[in-house]
Amino acid sequence: MIEGAKWRRWIYFYLPLGLFVFTLLFPFYWMLVTTFRPDNELYRPWMAPNYTPFWTSHPTLDHIKYLFNETLFGTWMINTLFIALASTAISLFCGLLARPPTLMSSPSFSHIATRASIRSSTVLRGRSTMPIR
Amino acid sequence: MAISSYALTEPYARASRRGAITRLLEDERWLALVLLLPTVLLLAVFIAYPFVIGVELSVTDAKVGVPGSFVGLHNFAVLANDSIFRTAVWNTFVYTGVTTVFKLALGLWLALLLNRHFKGKALTRAFVLLPFIIPTVLSTFAWKWMFDPTFSVINWTLFQLGLIHGRINWLGDPGLAMVSIIIVNVWRGVPFYAISLLAGLQTISPELHEAAAIDGARPWQRFWHVTWPLLLPVTMVVVLFSIIQTFADFQLVYVLTGGGPANSTQLFATYAYQIGVGTGLLSQGAAISLAMFPVLLIVVIVQLLYIRRVEIH
Lengths: 133, 313
Known about the structure:
Chain A is mainly α.
């Protein structure tokens, strides 16, 4: 913990953490505002006097409607989901079979691994051939 | 007769065959081989095969639609006299070096901040990871919009604060374009460093800090003599992993600047893509990618040696 007066806590902890969080998350806020911003406001140069960067007074759902009605967003979503599931399944399968012994030392993993190896050795004639580490 | 003998021997043969396989799997060496087979196959098809094809391409004069013939090291000789290639090499080293220093410094700082107890700790940790989770292409597009010379919110903010008086052409000016891709890469990389180092920080026993504090160590001394040495193994792994990723970076630069303006942000990967796929000189592109290989090999060897040393001790 930071010792001393309260202002030291603000200077050394809350201020830097706040700056970090702000900088790391700002682009996401920007994406969100841009989503609901109408086109005529979107294409307004930053030098224009009525440029309102951080807020929009005329939020619109046009862009979301466009995404669902005019594009194949649903198909893209399903494709992405399929690829994610398939690649996770394949790498999980390969990784589980070829797991390095070092992983076994982590308590939660070795619990699962032990149970899995007992199960697999039961399949292999009900005798444990693999040393349970 | 023939039919009855077949009917008799068939189940017996099957049973003995199954027995043979099971017996084989009882042997630990064979079992290990079988268990490793899927991974080996996957690595062979998706990593070893493309690599071999890459090496093969780099010593031919293949173009798109032309199989090409063997030309030895001609492609690499061409690279040695290619000024754009030299720019790309220099850019890649600058890009990797500068971003790694900033990512490590800021990531460690953030990790130290997140390691304290405060309200909303779990939520903050989760949200801070967002830039790393989101697909690079997506977040880079958001940055591209923020850097746009006409619509830039960054320009507006700096102008309102009175720091600038004209427009800043973030992606159009050769020097600033490099600064821009470095900013976005650091923004994307800091969460990865922070969360990995935070995991390392949590394994350090607080008793050591208490003992050091009782002995009169100031916060800075406690960091330098307790936290830093104990965190070093994790730091090494994270840094080396990040160097490999950054050195071969493609998406971010391709989306943000495409290697421009005037090749000022051209990296190994973007230049290889431009020559190999853009202009169709497959062999030349393969040679550029392969030129990256020795550097990455050294990094990987250092990493393996270090990890082994840590595991032994």
